[in-house]
C-alpha cells in the first residue's frame, strides 16, 4: 500500500499539503525564522502524528473492551538534537485518562497494545529516537 501526499509551495515559507483523506493543512515556520507563523510546523506535526496514531489505536481497543472514559488526552514532547540536521532524539508520550472508576488494567492493556503492536508511527519513531511512555489516571 502506498500513500501519496502532494505539497505545494504557497509563497514565502508557506506550504499546503494534502492527505489521502482529501483534507489539506498549511505548514509554515516562526516569524524569527522568516515565516508568518500561519501554519503547523513540520517537526511538531510528527509529534501530532505519533499521538494521533496511538490515540486511534487506544480508542479502538477501549471500545472493543467496552471501557469508557470521560476524557483522554496525550501530551507529546520531543527533544531535538543540537546539530543540523535537527531531529528528535528523545520523545515522551504521556497518556492521560479521566473518568469515574477507571479500569486501569484494561486501559494499560489498550495503551500497551498500541505501543508494542499496532502504532506504525511509534515504530517509525523508534528507528531514530528513544521513546518514553507513561500513563496517568485521573479518577473523579
Automatic annotation (TrEMBL):
Organism field: Gelidibacter gilvus
Pfam families from the UniProt entry: OsmC (PF02566)
Membrane-spanning intervals of the chain: none
Gene3D superfamilies reported in the protein's UniProt record: 3.30.300.20
Protein name as annotated: OsmC family peroxiredoxin
Amino acid at each position: 500500500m502506498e500513500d501519496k501526499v502532494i505539497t505545494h509551495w504557497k509563497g514565502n515559507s508557506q506550504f499546503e499539503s494534502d492527505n489521502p483523506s482529501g483534507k489539506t493543512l498549511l505548514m509554515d515556520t516562526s516569524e524569527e525564522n522568516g515565516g508568518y507563523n500561519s501554519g503547523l510546523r513540520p517537526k511538531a506535526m510528527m509529534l501530532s502524528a505519533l499521538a494521533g496514531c496511538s490515540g486511534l489505536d487506544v480508542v479502538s481497543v477501549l471500545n472493543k473492551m467496552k471501557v469508557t472514559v470521560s476524557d483522554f488526552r496525550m501530551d507529546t514532547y520531543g527533544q531535538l538534537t543540537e546539530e543540523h540536521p535537527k531531529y528528535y532524539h528523545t520523545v515522551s508520550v504521556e497518556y492521560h485518562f479521566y473518568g469515574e472508576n477507571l479500569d486501569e488494567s484494561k486501559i494499560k492493556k489498550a495503551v500497551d497494545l498500541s505501543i508494542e503492536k499496532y502504532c506504525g508511527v511509534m515504530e517509525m519513531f523508534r528507528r531514530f529516537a528513544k521513546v518514553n511512555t507513561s500513563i496517568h489516571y485521573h479518577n473523579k
